[in-house]
Amino acid sequence: MKLFIGYASTEGQTQKIARHIMDRLVDQGHSVELSALDQAGPVDLARFDAAILGASVHVGQYQSVLSDFAETRADALNSMPTLLLSVSLAAAGHDAEDWRGLDTILTDLSEATGWVPGQVMQVAGAYEPSKYDVFRRFVMRRIIAAKDPDADLDWDKEYTDWDDLNARVDSWIADGAT
Ligand SMILES: Cc1cc2nc3c(=O)[nH]c(=O)nc-3n(C[C@H](O)[C@H](O)[C@H](O)COP(=O)(O)O)c2cc1C
């Protein structure tokens, strides 16, 4: 299968996830083109059998480069198998309100762009104070302190469950990337 993987990533975790999936799919014999969405240029999606788009949630929304990309290519995306990797810290927990928020972000994306992803994977991201400016560090410390009392607030912490991600991507591919 020939796949396009495009991602938007502010601190780098979605990029890491996208690269991980690319390596896994290539190891399985698939052909993959990986691109940051802001550098994708005029990519012709008709060259691919399926597309995986990844973006992360910041203050309740995905990066605008994802919406821009999806809006301009909604017809192509809707006519091929697609998977949205939605990376957030809400997905690391079990807070029902947080998960309803993720649903809303997704609905907003589809309403704004016209693209309805064939499948959505909510993926836990990372807390990375080493990459935040002073303001972001202050805000994120408070959030993590409330959500994860065991976390050392001074250190980066990755919440991504790689084995679970592998299993879900493998299953999507095995099902024909529907
Ligand atoms: C300023 C800021 C705002 C964030 N807002 C949210 C949010 O509203 N909901 C959420 O679940 N996660 C939020 N996060 C967590 C990110 O989604 C998480 O750190 C993710 O791993 C970032 O992925 P990236 O490195 O690919 O950008 C926020 C993180 C930062 C730094």
Structure commentary:
With 178 residues, the protein is an alpha/beta fold. The chain has 2 domains: 2-125 and 160-174, Rossmann fold; 127-159, no CATH class. It contains 6 helices and 8 strands. The protein has helices at residues 13-27, 64-72, 74-78, 96-113, 134-147, 162-174, and strands at 2-7, 31-36, 50-58, 61-62, 82-88, 119-124, 126-127, 157-158. The chain is globular and about 45 Å long. It starts with a strand and ends with a helix. Bound molecules: flavin mononucleotide. Flavin mononucleotide is lined by residues 9-14, 56-60, 87-90, 125-126, 132, 136, 140.
Report strand %: 15-25%
Report the mean per-residue pLDDT as an integer. 96
CATH homologous superfamily of the largest domain?
Flavodoxin domain
CATH architecture type of the largest domain: 3-Layer(aba) Sandwich
Q: Quick one: biggest sheet? A: 6 strands, mixed
Oligomeric status: single chain
Element pattern in H and E: EHEEEHHEHEEHEH
Give the count of helical stretches: 6
Backbone CA Rg = 16 Å
CATH fold call of the largest domain: Rossmann fold
Bound molecules: flavin mononucleotide
**What is the β-strand count?**
8
Class from helix and strand fractions: alpha/beta
Large-scale geometry:
globular
Helix content: 40-55%
State the low-pLDDT regions, or none: none
Distance between the termini: 13 Å
Question: In CATH, what is the class of the largest domain?
Answer: Alpha Beta
**Tally of domains:** 2
GO molecular function: FMN binding; menaquinone-dependent protoporphyrinogen oxidase activity
GO biological process, one term: heme biosynthetic process
Organism: Marivita cryptomonadis
Domain Flavodoxin: 5-149
